[in-house]
Amino acid sequence: MFDQCVQFENSAIAPEIASYLLGETAPMVALKETLSLLAPTDAPVLATGQTGAGKEMVAQAVHAASGRSGSFVAVNCAAIPAELLESELFGHEKGAFTGAENRRIGRIEAAAGGTLFLDEIGDMPDGLQAKLLRVLETRRITRLGGSHDIEVDFRLVTATHRDLEVAVKEGKFRADLFYRINVFPVQVPPLAQRVGDIPLLLEHMIETRTARAPRGGAPHFTDAALAALARHDWPGNVRELRNTVERAMVLFAGRDIGAADIERLLGVSPLASAVEGAGDAEAPVCILKPGESINLRRHLQELEATLIQAALAQADGRVAQAARQLGLQRTTLIEKMKKLGLSAARAKAA
Ligand SMILES: Nc1ncnc2c1ncn2[C@@H]1O[C@H](COP(=O)(O)OP(=O)(O)OP(=O)(O)O)[C@@H](O)[C@H]1O
Question: Which domain of life is it from (predicted)?
């Protein structure tokens, strides 16, 4: 499809793309080569793929390799209530509506000179789809309550786990907007199709987590454990792998992990497994070896820190969203973060 293959010092993969997206299997190499070609252009990119496969990582990688000096601005269209999404995207003038006490710059304007990433674009309400289409055609926006147009230059990357062609056929997504955003469709392969990348991803995840929580040492995945990981179907993709590593770091710190341990680690919340397993013929994940003593208070604190870090990372450092996922008040989460010395910014970078 791409005849003029740009070479990046012996490789067709741009260094920024390589640093964001780990993976050496054929589907990942093909994806990274395609992204390296399209990143420096202005063309819109539509990333599709299963949840947790790495669509947002693709968007960040495209931005990093685009040479654009502005910001990377991400908006999850499914996470923001429909009635707030318009003002979030377009911003508003003072007094535009009840409660609009100050002028607010919207996310589209904030992405000027950079990249606007619209995640879950398939969930965008119909009226807003029409407004977005107009912005893409005119490259201009009007803040809510505003009287003049503002020119905006941004690169658009969108993502969805839905089949937008089906959504168009069913009348749930505007055909004209679909053709506008679908200039460069890229499919992020599910982890089950690239299990050969698991050891590399594991190594990277353990390395970054060990720097943060060095107590107890890193767990060691045996060959049998790696084989068991390769057999799993990974419905939650790389995110599920990351969560599995988070659990392993706490529950198997400094220990070997075998195939049987993997079966227990996968898809089970560490808290649920510890409780469900108590007094059961099935041993809980957190097994005490005979004669071994642990500091329960410290273990629980580490588990708490790990889960909070995981929620913050998934919420891209947004404390309110992480608090919702953990079933905590925002203020309670902030207090816990202070006590445990955790930072939202660091979780975002992890
Ligand atoms: N190729 C990769 N290399 C390293 N880390 C990755 C890779 N792909 C995904 N990840 C990590 O996996 C997690 C999920 O990735 P991401 O948020 O990009 O997925 P997504 O497809 O956008 O998910 P969703 O559809 O739920 O929004 C993130 O922590 C991300 O850092």
Answer: Bacteria
Is residue 32 lining ligand 1, measured as CB closer than 6 Å?
Answer: no
CA distances from 8 to 18, 31, 43, 69 (A): 11, 15, 20, 20
* Residue 44 sits in the same domain as residue 127: yes
Q: Per residue in 263-276, pLDDT tens?
A: 878 855 444 333 33
183 lines ligand 1 (CB under 6 A): no
Average pLDDT taken over every residue of the chain:
85
- Residue 90 in any domain: the answer is yes
Q: Quick one: which of 70, 78, 74 has its CA closest to 57? A: 74
Q: Please tell me whether residues 206 and 316 are part of one structural domain.
A: yes
Q: Given the structure tokens 């930072």, which residue do they identify?
A: 343
Atom nearest to 314 CA in ligand 1: 29
Parent domain of 125: 15-189
User: What distance in angstroms lies between residue 221's CA and the mean position of ligand 1's atoms?
Assistant: 22
Distance 240 CA to ligand 1 centre (A): 10
Query: Tens of pLDDT along 199-226?
Result: 999 999 998 877 665 567 889 999 999 9
Ligand 1 and 238: CB distance under 6 A? yes
Is the whole model's pTM more than 0.80, yes or no? no
The band of 250, judged by pLDDT with boundaries at 50, 70 and 90, is confident
Are residues 174 and 199 located together in one domain of the fold? Answer: no
User: Tokens representing 138?
Assistant: 């005119």
- Indicate the top mutation candidate among 34, 57, 241 to test ligand 1's pocket, ranked by most ligand atoms within 8 A of CB: 57
Ligand 1, residue 76: give the atom nearest the CA: 27
C-beta 75 within 6 A of ligand 1 = no
Closest residue by Cα to residue 115 from 4, 180, 40:
40
- By CB atoms closer than 10 A (0-12, 13-18, 19+), residue 257 is buried
